[in-house]
Design goal:
- The chain is globular.
- Helix 3 crosses helix 6.
- By secondary structure, it is α+β, with helices and mostly antiparallel strands.
- The protein has 6 helices and 6 strands; from the N terminus they run H-E-H-E-H-E-H-E-E-H-E-H.
- The strands form 2 sheets. The protein has a 4-stranded mixed beta sheet with strand order 3-4-5-6. A two-stranded antiparallel sheet has the order 1-2.
- The C terminus is likely disordered.
- It has one domain: 3-Layer(aba) Sandwich (Trna Endonuclease, Chain: A, domain 1), CATH 3.40.1350.
- Helices cover 42% and strands 21% of the residues.
- The longest helix has 20 residues.
Length: 150
Amino acid sequence: MINSRAKGSAAEREFAGLVYDWSGVRLIRNLEQTRSGGHDLIVHPDEVGPVADAFRALAIECKRYQSVTEANIQKWWNQAIAQAKPAELMPILAYRANRAPWRVVLPLRAVNQALSHSQQLGYCVTLSPEGFCHVMTEAVLNQGVKSHDR
């Protein structure tokens, strides 16, 4: 049987690798998470630039389970919110079931600031890691662009 801590750390590294592949930003495991109850992944301290800074505004929680139910997702999302709130970060949930692709849950406001600021799961979107990284990089690229400029 696989040690759940080892499985969790392997999942965090796997997801961090996908983020690097799609955004160029290096995420590392938050080694303080066990002691402080924080989120799983943080931006590598050597990373600089606006995209890295955008990822620094996130509290990323990673989950890797044999199978995933809607109840699991709701429980994990509640955990992501609870861990993001004290740090005043945006909650992000990345999860993967065995033989399934990674999925990333994020609030609608991550996609468009004009949309609901509710963090209830019903007001979230679920994307692939590629889609998630696209949202993060596009948000940075479009920060200075006003809607009438498009």
